[in-house]
Amino acid sequence: MEILLTEIISQNVTGIQWIGTEAWITAKLISPEESVRFLIGTIGPAIPMLEVKGLREFLLKIHPSSFPGNAFVKKFWETAFQCTFPSGNTSQITALSTWQQCTGKEDLTQIHNVYSDVSVDGSSYNVYKAVYAFAHALHNMLSCEKGNEPFMNNTCARVSNFQPWQLLHYLQSVNFTTTSGDRVYFDGNGDPVAMYDLINWQIDSRGVSEIKIIGSYDGSASPGHELTLDEEAIVWKSGQNKMPRSVCSESCIPGTRKVARKGQPVCCFDCTECAEGEISNITDSTDCIKCPEQYWPNQQRDRCLPKEIEFLSFTEMLGGVLLTLALVGVSTTISIAIVFFTHRDTPIVKANNSELSYLLLFALTLFWACMLCHTAFAIATLPNNNMAKLFGPAQQRWSVFLLTSVQCLICTLWLTISHPFPMRNTEYYREIIILECDLGSVSAFYSMAGYIAFLAGVSFVLAFLARKLPDNFNEAQCITFSMLTFCAVWITFIPVYISSPGKYTVAVEVFAILASSCGLLFCIFVPKCYIILIKPEMNTKKESTVITPLLKRKHP
Questions:
Q1: What's the structural domain count of the chain?
Q2: pLDDT cut 70: percent of the chain above it
Q3: Same domain, 337 and 430
Q4: DSSP 15-46
Q5: Taking burial as the number of CB atoms within 10 A of a residue's CB, which of 7, 132, 223, 361 is the most buried?
Q6: What is the pTM of this model?
Q7: Which value, in Å, is the radius of gyration of the alpha carbons in the chain?
């Protein structure tokens, strides 16, 4: 210990919280003496000390004049007051020239050192209790009476010739209380009750180091009450009153994990935040746990929360705008159907195949409601121009039925074999679930889309070829514009749909359906309604009838 303290002094090692052991925590003399200032704040356990009654009074009465021939008393006096007597041998102590001569008038009550401390240290106190334990064991052995013989054949130990194991039997069963109030007994393993004082080295008002008892440990106390500690009385390292933090690295809070520092002790580490999608819910976690697929960490990354589900809702602004447009479209379509039905006997309605017009308006109604819109596309993209007049009513009905039946068959097979279904997409956003519609069978979808494109192309070609027919109300031009609008919308839809994220893909598709429906409605039916409602003078048989040589040959 002396070598260690000498090195501490030479390197001026300060700021360390010392934890003393029972061997030196109660030492009165520490060598070298200047090391005491480095040890202020030391805490450690010590065997309880006992103050012997009457010892102090005895020591205070000692004087060299009372024991003239006692060399020990003379040496004690010289050491206590650091003085020398004029006569006597010249020992190493009395040979120190810096000490004054002893006068005999020195007062023992004024000194405060190891000699004035009359408390018995822990080791001496244990010896004290051991002697009493043996005394009680011998007393119990001597008090052996007939009827209480503990040994074989109901015999007692012979006092003049007893065996050690016989005394041990009585020693294990002793149970007494010392004059200082400590209870002494041994457990089943032969161990005494653990009792310790908690010692703290402090500086008193005079700047002298002193030992303070700040707590105790009593193994015989009830569970949970063995340790008592007065935290406010503790003086920590360098005389501080605040408890020091004796760690290389602070604990890692939940949401982080420990990463060891290369080349440093295991108590030195860095706290690294858990990666995206991972959490840690305990302090000083060494690993992070990945959240389930449907969950995502909170901001602190110490809990997994259900992911937010995102979809196009009617309650948000975008969904509300699209819903409003759809309602306006449905209302407009129904209004046009009412206008056509109210003026069903007028020439312009009769001249444009009212049955096919009603069927087309019904398909457009499905468009606006997004119900069976893919099937209704087959009806909406049918040729509805003057070229249809080359066929009779029966042929026209059959052509519409057959062309629509193909689309219905494709859609029925699609819904039967592998129908679309709602899917939770977790790939686009890691923290959000996109609720979208999976196509199911991609082949069926492309077959349906290809057939719609085929019908649209045929309608556009026929309308384009009939655009120069002599007609005051040239319906072919209206169909041409409607098909151009239809094709332009859906050709533009493809790249926009692919590049749109999350719920906006659904919004793009809905907008494309509404835009193409609007193009068909306004290009084909609005001009007719304009004539019926605004220009009724043009709604005559003369204005709406077209007579060509071809039609004359067909319909004489």
A1: 3
A2: 83
A3: yes
A4: S---B--TTTTT-S--SSGGGGGGSTT-EEEE
A5: 361
A6: 0.48
A7: 54
